[in-house]
């Protein structure tokens, strides 16, 4: 059995590699039941969430991710999301690989966002705003830059020092990167806004969007969480990673649905439809679009197979 570390994932699998693996995966599909998640009560901090996400191919391999989301980890300088992925042999069902699930999750989540942006963001999108500066942020920046000519990145976080620290790190990769305390001004000039927070209140507002902006919503994976207001969802053409997941779990979709601000018919498509050509993405340079993801077992499974293949080809 092979053990694959976070360092090996980053060394042998590029952001674009995972985008293309997910494009093929969503187009072909696999068996992936809606994930099971359980609330883990905490006495002195926000509750944690325990996740189990299985997936498999007919007559093929299978896998499962076991993960935990612990909001309080930010105070411990640890990732909010951690986990392990176990890949099972296609013939025997025996474990064939154990993969660092924390790194796999951040990389596949970012790749899914970039895949959506490849259908929904303007082709010339070059100015990005990153809302949040946790473990997801650098992965999202690199993934989006693999599908669009991102040159400038403005980073906002409630803790301004953390935003500026990530901006300094991002600048070493060749981007023009700055930290900001003024999210509104940053959003008003952005081509692409990516949010990766655990916020329970809107951070980005519809009135801030200029024509042609694409909004990528990665955080807020519970119905009680949200990163945008109803006005933004009304202003944008809405897409999701999967209909069943986003409509049941993503607060940015669930809350405006419950309020009557949007209807299910306003959700125009998901990654299955986009990759299969069944759904149209961006139609004009002027329209605003939004992509809401809550995570899908297919993403972990496809990414795990891609990682194992890449590491194997490298002779490791």
TrEMBL record:
NCBIfam families listed in its UniProt record: PRK06141.1
InterPro entries on file: NAD(P)-bd_dom_sf (IPR036291), ODC_Mu_crystall (IPR003462), ODC_N (IPR023401)
Gene3D superfamilies assigned to the protein according to its UniProt record, in alphabetical order: NAD(P)-binding Rossmann-like Domain, ornithine cyclodeaminase, domain 1
Protein's UniProt name: Ornithine cyclodeaminase
Cellular component terms (Gene Ontology): cytoplasm
Family designation: Belongs to the ornithine cyclodeaminase/mu-crystallin family.
GO biological process, one term: carboxylic acid metabolic process
Gene Ontology molecular functions: oxidoreductase activity
Pfam family, one: OCD_Mu_crystall
